[in-house]
Design goal:
alpha+beta; Nucleotidyltransferase, domain 5; four-stranded mixed sheet
Length: 379
């Protein structure tokens, strides 16, 4: 197993990524996956994905002396492994070996595999929207490599992998819990600290929570329920905020919305459409700055039940109709729900048919009408 570096353009911005590589010395097959950082969560997650790729677990894996697995280098090939790595390999049932420091050639062909894959599939620098799209390209490259024939061998890599799969250990029924756990309390900014960063949570100040840190995202749990999920930040002392977590507070202080950090981050992530600004401006012009902003917050609160996509569609429809009221947005949301509901099927009355009665007749009253006309003429 080895890490190597690669570059990609994310929405036009060049960024370095770290690619995990697990290569089989027997078949020559390899699994690659890109991560923003080569941390322990990415290290463990990539192992599980690699096992699924190969269709089984290798009995022995060989490593460099990376910190995700090795706590202390001892004499010879002995190592003091980290507690989580010991638990991880015990869960999957494989043994580990470590190279002599500075002797990378002991890892077999994995270093050459990383360079070969980068030259053939990451040059020129790929242009992608996000890390998920990059990993789709990496996965396609891995599948393409299975048709390659390594020099000196008589069959493609993919065919050798099928033969090799019969000798691997079976996959575990359940995966390993990959998250690192932290137990902070919610601070005065409604944030829970995990490692060096702060993540917002819709909870009262002083609430004790459990934070699960994965390679790409962070979850905040309270009373066995996930109350917040954020993209993981690899910066230091950064606040990762979700605007929805502050809407209840902003209802009481609407003037703070325009300059809030949560709104700024929402805009930067592309989750604040231009239609919201237009609708907000119309509300402020008709209801005043304070009340108009409070009305806009009420519109945002509708997303808790209806979802952001439906609320955005309703706001854009209200703008087309010339409406500028929370009630109009709520009405458009209800109309959409009614259109999606299936038509009710007619009920089968069955035995209740015996209670049917004929419709009333007014023929007897016609006799009275003729008498009334005669009386009117005499008068």
């Amino acid at each position: 197993m080895d890490w190597y570096e690669g570059w990609a353009e994310f929405d036009g911005e060049p960024r370095k990524t770290y690619l995990f590589c697990l290569r089989s010395m027997a078949s020559g097959g390899a699994f690659h996956r890109a991560y923003p950082h080569a941390n322990q969560q990415a290290f463990l997650e990539a192992h599980e994905l690699a096992f699924a790729h190969f269709g089984g677990v290798f009995r022995v894996l060989r490593y460099d002396n990376l910190k995700s697995a090795v706590k202390k280098i001892l004499r010879g090939h002995q190592r003091e492994e980290t507690a989580r790595f010991i638990a991880f390999r015990s869960h999957w049932g494989f043994e580990s070996e470590f190279c002599t420091p500075g002797e990378g050639h002991e890892k077999g062909g994995v270093e050459g595999e990383g360079g070969q894959f980068r030259r053939n599939h990451l040059v020129p620098v790929p242009k992608v929207r996000d890390l998920d799209e990059l990993n789709l390209l990496v996965r396609a490259g891995s599948k393409e490599e299975e048709s390659r024939v390594i020099d000196g061998r008589g069959q493609p890599i993919g065919a050798a992998m099928l033969i090799e799969r019969e000798h691997l250990l079976p996959l575990a029924v359940e995966g390993f819990d990959l998250a690192s756990l932290h137990f902070p309390t919610v601070d005065g900014n409604s944030c829970a600290r995990a490692l060096t960063n702060f993540y917002s949570a819709p909870l009262a100040v002083g609430t004790a929570v459990e934070v699960k840190v994965y390679s790409a995202y962070v979850e905040v749990w309270y009373q066995a329920k996930c109350v917040a999920r954020h993209e993981r930040s690899y910066e230091r002392h950064k606040k990762v905020l979700e605007l929805e977590h502050y809407l209840d507070v902003l209802t009481k202080k609407p003037g703070a919305l325009a300059g809030s950090t949560a709104l700024e981050q929402c805009r930067a992530q592309g989750r604040w459409p231009a239609s919201y600004d237009r609708f907000w401006e119309v509300l402020r012009q008709r209801q005043g700055k304070q009340e108009g902003t409070r009305a806009m917050i009420d519109v945002l609160l509708l997303a808790r039940e209806q979802g952001p996509a439906k609320v955005r569609q309703a706001v854009e429809e209200a703008l087309k109709l010339g409406c500028s009221d929370v009630g109009a947005v709520r009405y458009l949301l209800n109309i959409g729900d009614q259109e999606q509901q299936p038509a009710s099927a007619p009920a089968q009355i069955g035995a209740l048919n015996r209670y049917d009665r004929p419709q009333p007749s007014l023929k007897d009253y016609d006799q009275l009408r003729s008498n009334w006309r005669t009386t009117e003429v005499i008068q």
